[in-house]
Amino acid sequence: ALSEEEKTSLRAGLITNFNEPINQIATQIAVLIAKVARLDCPRQWPELIPILLESVKGHDGLLQHRALLTFYHVTKTLASKRLAQDRRLFQDLASGIYSFACSLWSHHTDCFLQQVCARDEAAALSSLERTLLSLKVLRKLTVHGFQDPQQNMEVMGFLNAVFERLKQFLECCRQVGSESPCREKLEKTIILYTKVLLDFLECHPCAFIPLIQRSLEFAVTYVFTPVGEGVTFERFIVQCMNLIKMIVKNDTYKPTKNIDGEL
């Protein structure tokens, strides 16, 4: 019902600034941008992703957070499209921005860990929020952005780094204690790390083969040995058990039956 001129004007207006101070309204704006992007990005709206990436790099805390929030919702929406042509477009996007997404996640994670050590809880909570959003973006890019992820060194490097980051974040649970304002979001981030592994295993079982031994060793160590005492929590233990179960029961890893031998 809208003319192309009106659409262009509306799209431009949506991304003129990311300074909305109220979280709920900022989330609604991000969802709205993502819904428009589902129809128009990248063909009719090629400038969206470059503007988001540029805004995410900014030093203004509020602007950076809102841009990252929008970046996540856009990535999530584009990753959900299932037509072959749309999936190819998302794979092209993923290959172009994956390095940036990894560096963003790594930067915010390092900032959070440093601030936790310095006992700066307000700054740590802000960095943790950005870590969570950038990890959500990476989860979508890693699981849905590559047809043969095992051939991409950055993807496999990120997945291997997940185990080290999980150990660091679990140790943070011991440091911050149950009363810390960071605790709830910290547990959400830990669960999200396990979801990255579970989703990747489900969608790319063959690419997951190099990670099988490390995944099993990690899950068993934290669930069944004293290493996990004082740092694990119920939902994390459930996720570890799911990881073990999915590996053991995955049809891809079961040997084929030798019919000739049985006869």
TrEMBL record:
Domain of life: Eukaryota
InterPro entries linked: ARM-like (IPR011989), ARM-type_fold (IPR016024)
Protein name in the entry: Importin-11
Organism per entry: Goodea atripinnis
Lineage of source species: Eukaryota, Metazoa, Chordata, Craniata, Vertebrata
